[in-house]
């Protein structure tokens, strides 16, 4: 019987596979860029290791795009093929990933909660559960899940980082900062804990401190996957933008946010889109960057992996004037909202679709439509997920539309495409 570094039993015939599986776990918890390599090595050492296939499935699902989703489903099938010989914990985790793969997030969360109750050492499962709570805008449970397993972990910086982020999202900023700094005192290379503190400093308006904090850790980000690498740079750019230094923010977009992005990857695209939009909302001319970015968005048209992603993509397409894509994507989002799992049904139908309509109107300079459509959904935006900081963008956009609508109904947005309503208000 083999155990992993978390002291959890792993069903495998190969100690070599266990060693690589420990690397997979470490890369997952540290958002490391070597996770795919570690997965391949673990599965090469033991192609029958169900939990390694399940971790692979979870990793590829978390990429939230159609190509990686196909890869995820292949691994999930293999995990299910070898599930009978596995432990209860492994079986529950595989069930959680299977539920996720069908969009049954409620069910997935039930399995992650059950694992947290019976196997609190399993931080991969806690991280996965937090991921789902994050993308349904449930900060309370995001925090609670980390708290639930705290007694089983002493001096575990990964858990402290997870808890710090949960505390920050719940508005417990002092506790979040203490917890995040405690994690970094143990291991300064923990990018999620760095990120949790970055959120606290941003929320409290401690912008100069935030720049010092994040720039002090940039040397550790070379080990990060592109999602957290570009997201942490995005936070740095936000600080500069708050200081009014849009030149540095724009330079960071070019060099470190979009510049270091895996350009086909939805989460990397989200950060770049959000930064471009924030720059524009401050009156910065971003040149042809919308066009350059949006050429990578074609694959988003029918994926609908996360409403949060769709909203960013559809806005960028609109700003780039790709109105055929916009119409196709909006239509596809509406169809998806009718068929999605009931646990996500209302968020898609009642929040994501109208928000998309409002964003498209804003991108076209139709301020009145933007304000009319967005107003009823503003108080429900948390249902589409994302952090407070990320969602603050939509509030800024709404306020911008309001200001323009009040000033004049005339389109004054730079580089506006001809006004073409794609929906009835
Ligand atoms: Fe963040």
């Amino acid at each position: 019987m083999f155990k992993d570094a978390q002291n959890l039993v792993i069903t495998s015939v190969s100690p070599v596979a266990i060693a690589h599986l420990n690397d997979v776990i470490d890369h997952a918890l540290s958002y490391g860029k070597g996770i795919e390599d570690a997965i391949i090595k673990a599965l090469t050492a033991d192609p029958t290791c169900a939990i390694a296939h399940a971790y692979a499935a979870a990793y590829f699902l978390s990429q939230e795009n159609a190509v990686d989703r196909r890869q995820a489903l292949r691994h999930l099938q293999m995990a299910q093929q070898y599930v009978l010989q596995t432990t209860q914990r492994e079986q529950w985790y595989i069930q959680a990933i299977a539920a996720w793969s069908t969009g049954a997030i409620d069910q997935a969360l039930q399995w992650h909660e059950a694992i947290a109750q019976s196997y609190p050492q399993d931080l991969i499962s806690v991280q996965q559960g937090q991921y789902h709570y994050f993308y349904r805008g449930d900060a309370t449970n995001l925090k609670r899940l980390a708290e639930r397993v705290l007694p089983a972990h002493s001096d575990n910086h990964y858990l402290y980082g997870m808890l710090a982020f949960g505390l920050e999202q719940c508005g417990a900023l002092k506790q979040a900062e203490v917890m995040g700094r405690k994690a970094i005192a143990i291991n300064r290379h923990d990018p999620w804990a760095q990120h949790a503190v970055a959120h606290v400093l941003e929320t409290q308006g401690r912008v100069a401190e935030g720049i010092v904090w994040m720039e002090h850790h940039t040397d550790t980000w070379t080990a990060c996957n592109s999602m957290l690498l570009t997201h942490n740079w995005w936070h740095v750019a936000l600080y500069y933008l708050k200081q009014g230094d849009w030149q540095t923010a724009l330079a960071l977009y070019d060099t470190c946010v979009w510049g270091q992005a895996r350009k086909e990857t939805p989460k990397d695209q989200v950060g770049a889109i959000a930064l471009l939009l924030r720059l524009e909302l401050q009156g910065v001319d971003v040149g042809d960057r919308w066009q350059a970015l949006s050429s990578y968005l074609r694959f988003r048209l029918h994926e609908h992996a996360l409403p949060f992603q769709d909203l960013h993509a559809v806005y960028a397409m609109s700003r780039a004037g790709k109105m055929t894509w916009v119409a196709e994507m909006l239509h596809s989002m509406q169809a998806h909202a009718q068929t999605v799992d009931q646990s996500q049904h209302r968020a898609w139908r009642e929040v994501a679709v109208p928000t998309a309509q409002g964003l498209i109107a804003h991108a076209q300079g139709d301020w009145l439509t933007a304000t009319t459509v967005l107003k009823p959904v503003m108080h429900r935006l948390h249902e589409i997920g994302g952090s407070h900081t990320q969602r603050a963008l939509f509030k800024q956009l709404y306020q911008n539309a309001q200001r323009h609508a009040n000033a004049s109904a005339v389109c004054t947005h730079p580089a506006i495409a001809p006004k073409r309503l794609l929906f009835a208000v």
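The domain at 1-149 is CATH 1.25.40 (Serine Threonine Protein Phosphatase 5, Tetratricopeptide repeat). The beta strands are 2-3, 9-10.
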